[in-house]
Amino acid sequence: MSDPMKNDIISQPEFLKKLMKQYIKDDFFSNELKKAATCLKESKGPILFIGMGSSYFATIPAVNRLCANRQFAFNPPTDELLHYQLPVIDESFTIVAVSQSGESIETKKVVERIKDKCRVIAITNNPQSTIAKLANINLPIFAGEEATISTKTFTNTLLLLDMLVDSIFSESVDGYCNLINDFDVLAAEIDVLLSQSPSLYDKLAKFNKLTLIARGNSLAAAKMGGLICKEGTGLQPAAISGGAFRHGPLEIAGPDHAAIILADTKDKTFDLMLKLAKELFDFGSKVIFVTDQINKDNYSFNYIKLNKYQHLNTLFSFSIVIQILTREIALRQGRIPGKLNKISKVTRVE
């Protein structure tokens, strides 16, 4: 059976390296990144992130970091912004338009309507796309051609947005050179996770309901996972924050429910996520707890222990775990992993 998704997953560390090197060693792209950061730093009003699908979810960590540093940023659903909220945008706003294709219909329409009113920074994988050309500054993600559902375009977008935010608060992003070794470790971790994916799937056993749960920056990986799992498997998993899960959805816990919980030990809500995992297990749910630190004595449920990286955010590993599990579910269903059957990779119509 054809398996193009596996190639997309495996290639992510190399494309992350390529992006990093372009923005550190190439003077043109380094200067463009600095210009974009200056634009955000000097914004007279809110910083508005727009995008659809996985491009939208990739903005979550950037918004969190900016708000944590007392810079007003937000990311409303772009399809709703387009039709119901655009009048609030004025010349004080700065827009960061994220679209891997550069052609996503709602994002493109928002940019078309506000480009003469406020500055626009585009994050795309296609410098010749409509959104890239309409923007004041375009920052390519250098993810190459992606054969299937979102994998490397998502992780490259995460890295570029992280570099952009860092550039607001630092004179240089040269420190990202320290990630080279981490990317090599990530490549080895991908090989291990791929080899373990059949047993990970078996630990979920039979389920009728699947939930991906995370908080903070990790929520970006959970939301992306919920989307690509729908696209790639035909299942209907829910992706939700740990707090929101308690407000009703917790009622679905039980033997026919599976939960994949992403918990970064550095996150301020780690203990809350661990508490939730234990409760779900006690209710009979099948739990896979994904984290970068394990106390085996305290965990009676299944877990995935990820590498602890020197510099790389655990979010990248979280994203890849969900991609690999999505691929495994598709294989078990006899599907070609990542292949879209009813829609195209780029949504060009509302």
UniProtKB/TrEMBL annotation:
Looking at the record, the residues that make up the SIS domain are: 36-174, 200-335
Could you list this entry's UniProt keywords, alphabetically sorted. Repeat
InterPro entries registered for this protein in UniProt:
GlmS/AgaS_SIS, GlmS/FrlB_SIS, SIS_dom, SIS_dom_sf
Instruction: Supply the EC number(s).
Output: 2.6.1.16
- What CDD domains does the database record attribute to this sequence? SIS_GlmS_GlmD_1, SIS_GlmS_GlmD_2
The terms describing its cellular component in GO are: cytosol
The portions of this protein that span the membrane are: none
Task: Write out the catalysed reaction.
Answer: D-fructose 6-phosphate + L-glutamine = D-glucosamine 6-phosphate + L-glutamate
Superkingdom: Bacteria
Biological processes per GO annotation:
fructose 6-phosphate metabolic process; protein N-linked glycosylation; UDP-N-acetylglucosamine metabolic process
What are the protein's GO molecular function terms?
carbohydrate derivative binding; glutamine-fructose-6-phosphate transaminase (isomerizing) activity
Question: Pfam family of this protein, just one?
Answer: SIS
Q: What is this protein called?
A: Glutamine--fructose-6-phosphate aminotransferase [isomerizing]
Q: Which organism is it from?
A: Iocasia fonsfrigidae
Give the taxonomic lineage as stored in the record: Bacteria, Bacillati, Bacillota, Clostridia, Halanaerobiales
